[in-house]
Amino acid sequence: MVARKIFIIFVCLFVVSSLTAKECVDCHKKTTPRIVSDWQLSKHSQNGINCSECHGDKHNSAQDVSEVRIPTPVTCAMCHEEKVEQFKSGKHAAAWVAMKAMPTAHWQPIALMEGMKGCGGCHKIGLKTEEEIKELKKDGAGFGVASCDACHTRHIFSINEARQPQACQTCHMGFDHPQWEMYSSSKHGVRYLLKQNKTLPETVAAPTCQTCHMQKGNHAVKTAWGFLAVRLPMPED
After folding, report:
1. Which of 94, 134, 185, 214 is the most buried (most CB within 10 A)?
2. HEC per residue, 28-77
3. Domain map of the chain by residue range?
4. One digit per residue, pLDDT tens: the chain, 237 residues?
């Protein structure tokens, strides 16, 4: 009897959840159709995780768009607790505070830094306080609030996309930190790019950034030992 009641409650919740998702989809197909198509391709959609799970249920019309909750790592931790804890222990989580502490960031021209341009465009991956999130929401409608979507692009949140070296390319490139240029011109990078464009078969050995920096999928994203010979291997390596 208890099992039957639980099953009925689950079915009712699923129906309500589906109706809510349908309402969002019907409207956003007209306003932001690509967001809808991305979500429909996602594992979230396939597993019944609808819009309100991440964005809350206070936004129901064009008049209350400001009530939309923009997901943060805390939101993701509701389902992905282990990965979020790993992320919090890594250097990516400190990216925001590191930029704020850097005097040279404050000396940049306003036009370069406003609206999360320049350094902020990548350093937004770091953890932020509630006050900082409110300020970011005022300035850019929520852009820069999230962290996980820097690699798992919304709204598809693809694991496969985040495993590609190009997921790292968007930030780790340029004259001040040319890791992408170093990787893509190395034998590792060349072989992987040839593998991606089918010049080399799928079975060839071709390491990505994640092979060394995210072993076993660890979201702490650790610096591999021996990088530019800056340190020797430690026992835990």
Report:
1. 214
2. HHHHCHHHHHHHHHCHHHHCCCCHHHHHCCCCCCHHHHHHCCCCCHHHHH
3. 1-68, 70-150, 171-229
4. 545 544 444 444 444 444 467 888 999 999 999 999 999 999 999 999 989 999 988 888 888 888 888 889 999 999 999 999 999 999 999 999 998 898 888 888 877 777 677 888 888 899 998 888 888 777 665 566 778 999 999 999 999 999 999 999 999 998 888 999 999 999 999 999 999 999 999 999 999 999 989 999 999 998 766 555 556 666 766
